[in-house]
């Protein structure tokens, strides 16, 4: 069992770790494409989305609303859907309706008794604000892309989180190995990999703890 101290801070990636963003993205794309008589296969859609959003975020910083719109246009083009640019905001409009994984709130309610909780998210402040209503616990430390003007896996979120955590030791939990576990490893931040997809370790950056879901993370933390 992992045994942190009582004054530790545990931050989470939000979309993909706490929020089921693949479901939200797929449903938003399928609904919008249906207006044009286009049927999108979810697995191919998500695979294409992951690649295209990463490419957009690696370019010069732009607000996440613009990232979502540009990514939507790229994905549509790759999948043979002629999406008009004027309709590319459908993703940001749908985001407030993306819901948590079933294990998210019960685990957060347990973990708040041991940790100061936080969020490190590749999103704009106003979009995250709309998502916070889905959670049953408060987050004391929140760092967004719009605050640090960069996207993970760049280290801006983690540098700012360490600064705000002060003397409290920082740990970070996330589903994305690329966006979160790798930079945590590089910075010496304890990382908890929520390996929801049962992936093989894709690189040399090993997480401090690996679990398949948030309930087992809470178990591992002894809460």
In short:
This protein is α/β, with parallel strands linked by helices and 223 residues long. Helices cover 44% and strands 12% of the residues. The chain has helices spanning 21-34, 42-58, 64-78, 90-94, 104-111, 125-132, 145-148, 156-165, 177-187, 214-220; strands spanning 9-12, 116-121, 141-144, 170-174, 190-194, 209-211.
Describe the structure.
- By secondary structure, this protein is α/β, with parallel strands linked by helices.
- The chain is built from 10 helices and 6 strands; from the N terminus they run E-H-H-H-H-H-E-H-E-H-H-E-H-E-E-H.
- About 45% of the residues lie in helices and about 10% in strands.
- Strands 3-2-1-4-5-6 form a 6-stranded parallel beta sheet, with helices on both faces.
- Helix 2 (about 40-60) packs across helix 3 (about 65-80) and helix 5 (about 105-110) runs parallel beside helix 10.
- The longest helix is centred in the N-terminal third of the chain and has 17 residues, at about 40-60.
- The chain starts with 8 loop residues before the first strand and ends with a helix.
- The model has no long low-confidence stretch (mean pLDDT about 95).
Helix content: 40-55%
Helical/strand content category: alpha/beta
Which stretches are poorly predicted, pLDDT < 50 over at least 5 residues?
A: none
Question: Helix-strand pattern, N to C?
Answer: EHHHHHEHEHHEHEEH
Per DSSP, what share of the residues sits in E-state strands of 2 or more residues? Answer: 5-15%
Tell me the CATH topology of the largest domain. Rossmann fold
Beta strands, count: 6
Round the Cα radius of gyration to an integer and report it: 17 Å
Overall pLDDT level:
96
Number of helices: 10
Shape: globular
End-to-end Cα distance, whole Å, is: 11 Å
Report the sheet with the most strands, covering strand number, pairing sense and barrel closure: 6 strands, parallel
Largest sheet: spatial strand order: 3-2-1-4-5-6
Question: Mind telling me the CATH superfamily name of the largest domain?
Answer: HAD superfamily/HAD-like
Q: For the record, what CATH class of the largest domain applies?
A: Alpha Beta
CATH architecture tag of the largest domain = 3-Layer(aba) Sandwich
Number of individual domains: 2
